[in-house]
Write a structure and sequence with these properties.
The chain has a 4-stranded antiparallel β-sheet, with no helix packed on it. It is built from 3 helices and 4 strands. By secondary structure, it is α+β, with helices and mostly antiparallel strands. 24% of the residues lie in helices and 26% in strands.
Length: 110
Amino acid sequence: MNTRFSYLYRDAGNYKTHHDVVLTGHLEEAAVRRLLFEGELFIPHELGLPELQRAPFTADDHIWHELETIAPTADVPTDPRSAAELLASMEQASSAGWNETAAMRRWGLV
């Protein structure tokens, strides 16, 4: 069984862009949520996932993305990493404090 990891970007105007990846192996949502900022927010770049904002940034934009769902699937993986590897990346990013400054620099905001 594989895992579908679905997330979204929602700007201040509530415009949404969705994305998901299918990973090899099983991923528990509770294990992921404990690592996210406020239990739901993360910076995809730190996990090797696509950021969903569009350039140029406007006053409605920010760097955070939201976890939407984590669900088992029989679908073929779309990401070369395993669920365990994604979780390890998340643990590293979370323990380092989700680098907001680097993300803002990448988008030219600071």
